[in-house]
Amino acid sequence: MMRSMGTTLHVKDAFLEVWADTLGSSGVIAAAIVICFTSWTWIDPGVAIAIGLWLLPRIWILLRDTTHILLQPVRAGIELDEVRAAINAVAAVVSTHDLHTWSMSENDISFTANVALVSGANANALRKAIGAMLAKDFEIEHVTIHCEAASCGQEALHP
Ligand SMILES: [Zn+2]
């Protein structure tokens, strides 16, 4: 777990959970032993407060990263108009609409779009070409392209 720390938020979350549980149970045992020998009863809430203080900044970082992802669905640096222009520049593409990008983790960008093609175009080859271009030029790894041979009527509604 230590090694994969910093990769995804759910690993960070699981890591914190395991640490909190480990510290909590070993803290209780340690405090009980100390109280047995010394009668220092303040040690019990003391340990609880210390664990809480240790967790607090880590929870704050996790919350900050999660909020960042939720509030910023499009990673800074990705301009949808630039992506649209790049897709429209691919041969046999007529137009692109209903573009969406979002990220599930810091480095994982997903993208969907409807792409209208000239009639008779090879949709599979074009999906591949667009996917490769988006990965190379925009570092977008998860691409879902809906190819349209005729207008779907949603262009004005979802530009
Ligand atoms: Zn459409």
UniProtKB/TrEMBL annotation:
GO terms for cellular component: plasma membrane. Its main location: membrane. It is found in: Membrane. Residues 78-148 form the Cation efflux protein cytoplasmic domain. InterPro entries: Cation_efflux, Cation_efflux_CTD, Cation_efflux_CTD_sf, Cation_efflux_TM, Cation_efflux_TMD_sf, CDF/SLC30A. The keyword Ion transport applies. It is a multi-pass membrane protein. The chain crosses the membrane at residues 20-40, 46-63. The keyword Transmembrane helix applies. It comes from the Bacteria. Keywords: Ion transport, Membrane, Transmembrane, Transmembrane helix, Transport, Zinc, Zinc transport. Belongs to the cation diffusion facilitator (CDF) transporter (TC 2.A.4) family. SLC30A subfamily. PANTHER family: CATION EFFLUX PROTEIN/ ZINC TRANSPORTER, RE54080P-RELATED. This is Cation diffusion facilitator family transporter. The lineage of its organism: Bacteria, Pseudomonadati, Pseudomonadota, Alphaproteobacteria, Sphingomonadales.
